[in-house]
Amino acid sequence: MTPAAGTTQPPDLYWDPYDWSLHADPHPVWRRMREEAPLYRNEKYDFWALTRFHDVSEVLADWKTYTSTRGPILEQIRGGQSKLSEGLLSEDPPIHDLHRQMLARAFTPRAVKQIENRVRDFARRLLDERIGSGGFDFVEDYGARVPGMVIAAMLGTPDADLEEIRRLTDAQLVVTDGTPFDRTQFNTMGGQLWDYFMEHVRSRRKSPGDDLMSELVAMEFSDEKGVTRKLTDTEACQYIKLLSAAGNETTARFIGWAGATLARFPDQRAKLVARPDLIPNGVEEILRFEPPAMALARVATRDVVWHEQVVPEGSVMVVIQAATGRDQRQFPDPDPDTLEVERRIDRTLSFGYGTHVCMGASLARLEGRIVVEEMLERFPEWDVVWDEAEIVHTGSSVRGYSSLPIVLP
Ligand code: HEM
């Protein structure tokens, strides 16, 4: 491979976000990118990439220079606009802030707290069924089922529909080998999900309940033209679909990483068993060590200079926030390639940063904490059947296990 035009990066250094063989462990390549090519150029997919903690923070904080209006995902930008790009994630301030503030009004800490007991009951039920068994699938039977339940609880959709929501949400995003983004599948599955949510929006308008969906349809707000009004059914549906898509896959992958990482570091798992008060920090450490959200993309609105090279206006800038958690500059001690549940973590970029920072971060942390607490209380030790574990590929955006079979002693 020859060096990319205009760069001095080593010819043998190559990162391809669609190279599935790299998804299991991209960290060695990312380490080389941080050290040898802090501004990385990929000619094949025509993007630039940053991997250092401070560089990535700077891009995410500067929405004027790095716009989200063409979507936050590389394959979306390259493939043109799609329904996935509508809404908050594909807006810049001021319109973004208006929409975000509105959603935040329904998405209160009180609402998050209220579902804590429901998450715990659900996690307990799932695990109690497994007591006395030789093992189960940490993702399929446990981790991936919790986030769907949480979203359904927020939206007030019936428990009986959980599996169907999850199937449709995941199916629209999964990417098969060789094709960066399957728009047909996305549109078909997305269409079915849309119809499902629309039906519920209409029924909440007629008979409101005590859930986020009811709050969304009832809430009055001042829109971009200064008119005070309620959301239309279509707007309410867009928000709900966004929450469902943003909260399901990412959190399911995150919980999978918790199961895999704690099995890889049994000494750290034993620490959490002995001292459950360390679990919140342990969850943060897992998010640093294996962030489920891999990379975000932006488009440069002007020429910018990074590491003495010019990135021209209109270029796609990919920020690999999953690489920043192992940046030695930010996490010098202990070695960032090691999991240490007592590590002091001031902040990570695992939930993004700046104007688009994840709105569901406290909810995802709560889910992670409860899932780990309930697991360790019943099953302090487990091994993973690594040969049978499967990594799911969601393009360049999310990385993690779709299946993680574990054996219990
Ligand atoms: C571990 C789980 C999660 C991870 C790693 C994650 C990661 C992220 C990241 C990196 C962004 C920033 C996107 C950007 O800058 O373009 C984001 C945005 C967002 N997330 Fe999450 N997320 C998680 C869970 C959730 C949950 C549970 C919800 C809601 C139920 C949620 C709702 C959102 C929303 C609404 C946004 C858009 C915010 C905006 O554009 O202003 N996320 N998330």
Short summary of the structure?
The protein has helices at 20-23, 27-36, 53-61, 74-79, 95-106, 109-114, 116-128, 138-143, 145-155, 162-173, 183-206, 212-218, 233-264, 266-274, 279-289, 321-324, 361-378; strands spanning 39-42, 47-50, 66-67, 135-137, 220-222, 228-230, 296-300, 304-306, 309-311, 316-319, 383-384, 390-394, 398-403, 405-407. By secondary structure, it is an alpha+beta fold.
Q: Characteristics of this structure?
A:
409 residues; alpha+beta; Cytochrome p450; 5-stranded mixed beta sheet; 3-stranded antiparallel beta sheet; 14 strands; 12% strand; globular; binds protoporphyrin IX containing FE
CATH structural architecture: Orthogonal Bundle
Task: Give the amount of beta strand, in percent.
Answer: 5-15%
Number of helices: 17
Radius of gyration computed on alpha carbons:
21 Å
Distance between the termini: 47 Å
Content-based structural category: alpha+beta
CATH superfamily: Cytochrome P450
Please give the order of strands in the largest beta sheet.
Answer: 1-2-10-7-3
CATH topology: Cytochrome p450
Helix content: 40-55%
Q: What is the strand tally? A: 14
Could you characterize the architecture of this molecule?
- This protein has 409 residues and is α+β, with helices and mostly antiparallel strands.
- The chain has one domain (20-407): Orthogonal Bundle (Cytochrome p450), CATH 1.10.630.
- It has helices at residues 20-23, 27-36, 53-61, 74-79, 95-106, 109-114, 116-128, 138-143, 145-155, 162-173, 183-206, 212-218, 233-264, 266-274, 279-289, 321-324, 361-378, and strands at residues 39-42, 47-50, 66-67, 135-137, 220-222, 228-230, 296-300, 304-306, 309-311, 316-319, 383-384, 390-394, 398-403, 405-407.
- A 5-stranded mixed sheet has the order 1-2-10-7-3, covered by helices on one side.
- The radius of gyration is 21 Å and the shape is globular.
- The relative contact order is 0.18.
- Protoporphyrin IX containing FE is lined by residues 68, 72, 88-89, 100, 151, 242-243, 246-247, 250-251, 254, 292-293, 296, 350-352, 356, 358-360, 363-364.
- Protoporphyrin IX containing FE binds next to helix 13 and helix 17.
